[in-house]
Amino acid sequence: MTHCDLLLRNVHVATMVAGDRAWGYSGRTGAVAVVEDLVTWVGDDARIPAGLEPRQELDGEGRWLTPGLVDCHTHLVFAGTRVPEFERRLGGASYEEIAREGGGILSTVAATRRASERELMDQASRRLALLARRGVTTIEIKSGYGLDVESELKMLRVARSLGSASGVTVQTTLLGAHALPAELHGARDEYLALVCDRMIPQASALGLADAVDAFCEEIAFTPEECGRVFEAAIAHGLPVRVHADQRTNGGGAALAARYRARSADHLEHTSEAGVKALAGAGTVAVLLPGAAHFLRDSAIPPLASFRAHQVPMAVASDLNPGSSPVLDPLQALSLGCLLFGLTPEEALTGMTRVAARALGLEDRVGTVAPGRRADLVAWSIGHPSELSYWIGHEPAWVVIRGGHRI
Ligand code: NIG
Ligand code: FE
Questions:
Q1: Which atom of ligand 1 is nearest to the CA of 105?
Q2: Burial level of 197, CB count in 10 A (0-12/13-18/19+)?
Q3: 3-state percent breakdown (helix, strand, coil) of the chain, nearest 5
Q4: 322 secondary structure, DSSP code
Q5: Which terminus of the chain has fewer Cβ atoms in its 10 Å neighbourhood, N or C?
Q6: Beta bridge partners of residue 244, listed in sequence order
Q7: DSSP state at residue 299
Q8: How many CA atoms lie within 13 A of 376 on its CB side?
Q9: What does R_g of the chain's alpha carbons equal in angstroms?
């Protein structure tokens, strides 16, 4: 190696690569070389290859360097808020009660259908800018507030445009099976046919969806109904993910395992059998503590069981207006520790390496290693546990995306 575009020196590198070393940290001051958009070398600052000529050098002054954060479960694109519902819940109404009355998700659907792509783009860009400033370099964005073909495709187009406009890597997920739209007056089969025969084929043909998700829950869809959606997804070559066992144990984890889902998300009410099924399928458990906190749910996911069965755990913001208006990825890490009992190292692993796996991007992002995309964050902290410790801190010093300093 003779030249590199960027050399970061004098940093403690938490590579987050799996192995014996906590945080993937060597214990010594490190350096990272970048050529174009890729990391090409990671090692001790004292052992930078002789003759390396960096075009640009950055002295981290002893800060910590981690992979860019991967927020692997969000509903970033939507219009409006759910403030009236928030106030009602504070007065004692339940999330389910509000949903059954036609509020909840359906109220965001009404606002999102009315909004133009421009308006959705403006609102979502502002939210994405906050996440990006706090270290997010890859984000997953779901549809699911359209619930008709044109509105679902509109949401996915906005999500794709956000990726090209912001420089943040965006993965899109079609969540047509999020709720039954009001205009179908309970015609479940008709709606599922629309999702399977029109939404999925069109989103796939237009290259607008990287995966398909479904909300498996009493107030949403049964495992059989979600299974129908997943058959269509798989027939179109799209991997699946599941909103599983969030409010009740509805067999969501077993469903995820049956379809070899990339991830099963929420899992507050998953049983031991469900955990074993996830382990057997290699499915990632995506923990969403922002939603449990915001819905004041006393149930927490079975972490001891995930650990015992070696189910990989990711952590995400679940950013959405109804159950998790979380605009700060570090707040999700903090809640993951305080509410669910993750260690700070598990939490950060869950928002880097394991989150990348939930998106099928483990060969590209989520660790600091040669060949991985140069998505890096230098943090003004004395130890990586601080990312889960402070509340309301903005510790990102420099964010680098695809080799470019932002
Ligand atoms: O992940 N659980 C379903 N979907 C979202 C909430 C959607 C909403 O309430 O708007 C979630 O929590
Ligand atoms: Fe969600």
A1: 10
A2: exposed
A3: 40, 25, 40
A4: T
A5: N
A6: 216, 266
A7: -
A8: 34
A9: 21
Cβ(63)–Cβ(397) under 8 Å?
Answer: yes
**CB atoms inside a 10 Å sphere around CB 187:** 13
Instruction: Yes or no: say if 104 and 322 are a contact pair by the CB < 8 Å rule.
Output: yes
What residue has token string 């260690």? 343
Instruction: Measure the CA–CA gap between 91 and 288, rounded to whole angstroms.
Output: 24
pLDDT digits (tens, 9 = 90+) for 112-162: 999 999 999 999 999 999 999 999 999 999 999 999 999 999 999 999 999
Provide the 3-class DSSP secondary structure of residue 106.
helix
Residues with CB under 5 Å of ion ligand 2 are: 318
Q: What's the one-letter identity of residue 118?
A: R
Q: Which atom of ligand 1 is nearest to the CA of 78?
A: 10
Nearest to 109 by CA among 184, 203, 211: 184
Q: Residue 13 above 70 pLDDT?
A: yes
Nearest CA residue ID for atom 8, ligand 1: 322
Can you tell me whether residue 74 is helix, strand or coil?
coil
* The model's pTM: 0.98
- The set of residues, in sequence order, having a beta carbon less than 8 Å from that of 9 and lying 6+ positions away, is 31, 45, 48, 57, 58, 59, 60
What is the distance between the alpha carbons of residues 240 and 185, in angstroms, rounded to a whole number? 27
